[in-house]
Amino acid sequence: MSTIRERIDSAMLHPELRAEGDPDAIIRDGRRLDHAEGTSKPLRPAPEPQPRGAKVRGNRPIDQQEAAARFIAATEHEKMHDERLWDLRQKRDREMHGIPEWEELRSLASAIKEHTLTHLDGYLDQFEANARSNGIHVHWARDAAEHNQIVHGILSDHGATSLIKSKSMLTEECGFRPYMASVGIEVIETDLGERIQQLDNEDPSHVVVPAVHKLRTDVAEVFSRTIGTDPGNSDVHYLAEAQREATRPLILNADAGMTGANFVVAETGTFVVCTNEGNADLSANVPKLHIASIGIEKIIPRLEHLAVFVRLLSRSALGSPMTQYTSHFRGPRAGGEMHVVLVDNGRSERLGLEEFWTSLKCIRCGACMNTCPVYRRSGGLSYGATYSGPIGLIIDPTFNARKYSNLPFASSLNGSCTNVCPVKINIHEQIYAWRRVLVKQHEVPFVKKAAMKAAGVLLSRPAAYRAAIAAADTALAHLPRFVIYNGLNAWGKHREVPHPPKQTFHSWYHANRGAKR
Ligand code: SF4
User: How far apart are CA 45 and CA 73, in angstroms?
Assistant: First the structure.
């Protein structure tokens, strides 16, 4: 029978220091670890630090490649991100196969959006008139600055100093949170992913799942730093519960609530918000003042059109048949006040761009991001912009062609984004069109432009092309490695040049088939 001292030692000693024979002792290589080893080695490996996004330096072109390389180097993050998003893509495919009229729905959705966009002024006027008769205050904002000022004005009129809000890419686009911080109004995100990003002082990396690039251990680190959870506990239930406990009092005491909108119905003057956490309903219904920020492209003509989009949205986004909450807002509740801010912020201008106007059909489902091999492996924050992935490549340059001039080149142009898009935007063709526009506008680095020009000359002269290939094959076979893999060879930074074949396809064809023609 053990003594009290032995029992205390057994209970209190580090497990790696207990006596031999102790079933809890940790034995490595056939021996028990001594004290130094036991204390110097962590019980579990330190979690991989989260790679941060692209460096944003004013108007300078975002170096997406550099940020993507850092994300890829963080192998746990890259693997998790790739698998998580591919899983969403597969779920989307399963849902799609369960709807025989899927392609018909896509065509219908595309036609409704194109019709609405080409009659936008009329439908916006119709919405405004109907919304006003429902008791909603309607405001118009030309740009991000005007949007922020309008919302600030409404809050000031009500003496509001705190605002709870649900996820809205439009408010990200407007730099809303930093603006509100500068005028002393506290903004609390109520979507869990968005709240994680807010606490970590990071932008959302995905339009639907804002913190999808984070491991559980990253979230544990953020919460331990900001709301005092156990840094070693990355259990999702524990973390979600802790966040709920920390945020709920802020929600209950907020002076105003804010939502975006997924769809705005012209004939009824109403709008619809789709969420999976019910947080938009809290934001809209707990405080008496509700403000909705809505991009002007969100409008659809009639309520019956909503069914088409609701069937496509959640299936495309998360591979689930419905969002958990599809909330219709028709007007202020008794004793409350409701404001809608209709925001342009470059949309009218985009509508006039012949090759790019259909990007306004986007319903922000994120399916193009989930399927994109570049996005899945490089993470949304590597784009250094509000919108990432394929849709980002065609929207971001409309805001600032210089700053986002590298983005349209972050695509393999495989067309998968176009295939999954529920509103049939020709995304990969628009990405390609942007490349042409940017070259014409001289927004492409000199080295890339010169390389493309040289490639164009070479590819248009068969004899010169064949001579160059023969020379390259010889060079690859004989030149030392450092000559091929150096700083000038950007392509070779992450790849090995394949071993040159003994015979080119052209010479094989000439020898074997050429005479039979
Ligand atoms: S472009 Fe299409 S697939 Fe991509 S987010 Fe928009 S609607 Fe979804």
Answer: 18
| Number of other CB atoms surrounding residue 38 within 10 Å | 18
Atom of ligand 1 nearest to the CA of 364: 5
Give residue 34's region: left, alpha or beta (phi > 0; psi -120 to 50): beta
- pTM value is 0.84
Report whether 190 contacts 278 (CB < 8 A). no
Q: Are 74 and 49 in contact (CB under 8 A)?
A: yes
Dihedral of CA 339/126/298/182: which sign?
A: negative
Q: Give 109 Cα–ligand 1 centroid separation in angstroms.
A: 12
243-266 residues labelled b (16+ CB within 10 A) or e (exposed):
beebbeeebeebbbbbbbbbbbbb
Average pLDDT over the chain, rounded to whole? Answer: 90
Strands 162-165 and 186-189: parallel
pLDDT at 436: 92
- In whole angstroms, give the CA distance from residue 61 to residue 257: 36
* Ligand 1: centre distance to CA 366 (Å): 5
Q: Give the mutation target among 117, 357, 362 for probing the ligand 1 site: most ligand atoms within 8 A of CB.
A: 362
| Cα 119 to ligand 1 centroid, rounded to whole Å | 21
Residue from 421, 424, 426, 431 to probe ligand 1 pocket by mutation (most atoms less than 8 Å from CB): 421
Name, in order, each residue with C-beta under 8 angstroms of 189's C-beta and a sequence gap of 6 or more. 165, 166, 167, 195, 197, 198
**Which ligand 1 atom minimizes the distance to the CA of 420?**
3
Strand ranges (DSSP E) for 330-385? Answer: 337-343
Round to whole Å and give the CA distance between 235 and 210. 19
Beta strand residue intervals within 209-354, DSSP E: 256-259, 263-265, 270-275, 289-295, 299-300, 325-329, 337-343
Domain ranges for the chain: 1-46, 64-348, 447-516
Tokens of 159: 């003496």
**Ligand 1 centre from 202 Cα, in Å?**
23
- Model confidence at 375, pLDDT cuts 50, 70, 90, reads very high
DSSP track, 484-501: HSSTT-SGGGS-PPPPPP
Q: What is the mean pLDDT of residues 454-468?
A: 87
Angle (deg, nearest 10), helices 236-253 and 192-199: 90
> Which CATH number applies to 64-348?
3.40.50.10420
DSSP H/E element including 172: helix 169-173
516 vs 333 pLDDT, higher one: 333
